Amino acid sequence: MYPEGVPCWIDVQLPDVEAGKRFYGGLFGWTFKVAPGDGAHEVWAYLPAASGTPAGAAPDVPSGASPGTPSEAPSGASPDVPLAPVAALVPKPDGRMPTVWTPHFATPDAVALAARITAAGGQMITTPTPVGDLGTAALATDPEGAVFALWQAGTHPGFGRRHDPGTFAWAELYTRDTKAANAFYAHLFHEALFGPDADPDFGRAAVTEVFPAEMPPHFLVHFGTEDCAAALGAVTRLGGRVQVPPFDTSYGNVAVVTDNQGASFALLQRRAPEGRREAPQEAGQERQLPDDLLLQGDEGREDEG
Fold first, then answer.
1. Cβ density class 179-216: b for 16+ within 10 Å, e for less
2. Residue 20, φ and ψ in degrees, nearest 5
3. Strand 218-224 relative to strand 202-206: parallel, antiparallel, unpaired?
4. Can you tell me the distance from the alpha carbon of 242 to that of 229, in angstroms, rounded to the nearest whole number?
5. pTM
6. pLDDT tens digit at each of 305 positions of the chain
7. How are the residues of the chain apportioned to helix, strand and coil, as percentages rounded to the nearest 5?
8. Residues 6+ apart with CB under 8 A from 176
9. Minimal CA–CA distance to 137: which of 169, 107, 115?
């Protein structure tokens, strides 16, 4: 299973899932199948498993995990090709809800993590709820209101493929107070972000680095691409739009776009050699080292006691 604090799954809530299938299928080459046990509502997106990966094995997934090859091929795919799940498209149950991509962070115990979230100043939107035998899901906000999900794996560990073109590549939290965000997420996910074996794909940045000051704090899911300019052309041809033109970051070239229903996401073209960026610092902000963040997390646990 994915270690706690690692982004392990993503989904998007859409008013029209069929339109979403046309958009993302055209952009990333995804094929689709009704999610396990979900009737005709949520669909999962698939890409072929990495070359040489046998059916049922999960490329780039920790040892012991398996994405579960579908019992029948998704639409447009050959039944002989092993497939890996990469994302979910979910119909919005309420039109007033936002059309948005949401990252899910792995946890071995969603109930315990939910308690830590509320103790640290976050809120639970939905409490941990079993999703059949697939796992347990919950939805939360951090102290500034940015929404994220929790996933405690059952038979579904999460991504069967990631860090490749057309798959999850990075999650960036755009926040008003990067110092507070660093302290909150270090308290929850210190080992995944700053541990000795950490290789994080989750960063924090000030909202005003990319967006207008009035933009609320939020997570932005990034998908990998080998050619950002070509991908932007495909976005517009498929009915999406460019929200923020390409700009350079320490982890690659990024453009922010929306799909044909208004869900924002980013396209990320990595530079070689691939790098990970530290949490950016606001002007005049004292640099925080991992030990400082760990200390803040320890202080939070003492306050809870």
1. bbbbbbbbbbbbebbbeeebebbbbbbbbeebbeeeee
2. -65, -40
3. unpaired
4. 11
5. 0.82
6. 899 999 999 999 999 999 999 999 999 999 999 998 766 689 999 999 974 333 333 333 333 333 333 334 454 555 667 999 999 999 998 878 889 999 999 999 999 999 999 999 999 999 999 999 999 999 999 999 999 999 999 999 999 999 999 999 999 999 999 999 999 999 999 999 999 989 999 999 999 999 999 999 999 999 999 999 999 999 999 999 999 999 998 888 999 999 999 999 999 999 765 444 443 444 444 433 334 444 443 444 344 44
7. 20, 35, 45
8. 144, 206, 207, 217
9. 107
Three-class SS state of 131: strand
Pairing of strands 101-106, 147-153: parallel
Q: Which residue has the tokens 């071995």?
A: 108
The structure tokens listed for 204 are 């924090």
